[in-house]
């Protein structure tokens, strides 16, 4: 039997969203721990299933989860908690690139992955590779099944053109990206079904063509020679 996201998990997150303050959270800490434990079970099962299909370095479902506590030091939003349970699975680097991501939140659940904050060297190489040959990436992004599941490419972008690239470059729409990822959105009623677990795995597996192209870009030079040991 597949693990499920309990209805009570979304009830807790909805209440937290309405009462996003430390006093309420502390009064309901036991409820939080209960729902957190349920999500850990779900994340452990996702990780175990994906390990049969990919090489992942994330050690456990618990370690995959992000903190619910918000860092408010440099944010205009001073609410202390993020009313969602989210996490990620990292692939073994440097041979494999990309990461899987999930966020369970009432009205805003997404499952997907990509490249959230490539370092400057990776971003430079990625842009050079795309500038030289963007066709492999476009083929994935324009695939009918891929677009049906994920929609359009997401990520932060520069406004005009990155340094060193002509704003009229034929691939400027891709070169502008500073991060690249895709999400599949789920309705609450879909998340709370037993079939949701299978759908998360199906979604993760659908990312592989995207990851394969990006891994090729990031592990070879412009002549196609490997740059990793």
TrEMBL record:
Leader sequence residues: none
Domain of life, source organism: Bacteria
Species whose genome carries this gene: Roseivirga pacifica
PANTHER family referenced in this protein's UniProt entry, alphabetically: CHROMOSOME 12, WHOLE GENOME SHOTGUN SEQUENCE (PTHR36452), DUF2461 DOMAIN-CONTAINING PROTEIN (PTHR36452:SF1)
Name the UniProt record assigns to this protein: TIGR02453 family protein
NCBIfam families: TIGR02453 family protein (TIGR02453)
Coiled-coil parts of chain: none
InterPro entries documented for this protein: CHP02453, UCP028451
């Amino acid at each position: 039997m597949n693990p499920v996201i309990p209805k009570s998990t979304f009830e807790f997150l909805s209440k937290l969203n309405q009462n996003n303050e430390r006093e309420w959270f502390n009064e309901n800490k036991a409820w939080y721990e209960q729902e957190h434990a349920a999500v850990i079970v779900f994340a452990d099962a996702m990780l175990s299933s994906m390990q049969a299909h990919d090489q992942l370095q994330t050690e456990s479902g618990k370690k995959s989860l992000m903190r619910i506590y918000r860092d408010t030091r440099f944010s205009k939003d001073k609410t202390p908690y993020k009313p969602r349970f989210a996490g990620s699975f990292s692939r073994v680097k440097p041979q494999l690139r990309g990461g899987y991501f999930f966020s369970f939140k009432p009205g805003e659940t997404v499952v997907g992955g990509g490249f959230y904050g490539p370092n400057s060297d990776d971003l430079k190489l990625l842009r050079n590779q795309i500038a030289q040959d963007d066709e492999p990436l476009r083929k994935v992004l324009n695939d009918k099944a891929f677009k049906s599941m994920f929609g359009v490419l997401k990520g932060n972008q520069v406004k005009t053109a990155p340094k060193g690239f002509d704003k009229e470059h034929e691939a400027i729409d891709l070169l502008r990206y500073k991060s690249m990822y895709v999400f599949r959105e789920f309705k609450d009623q879909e998340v709370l079904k037993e079939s949701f677990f299978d759908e998360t795995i199906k979604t993760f597996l659908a990312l592989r063509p995207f990851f394969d192209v990006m891994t090729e870009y990031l592990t070879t030079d412009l002549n196609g020679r490997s740059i990793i040991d």
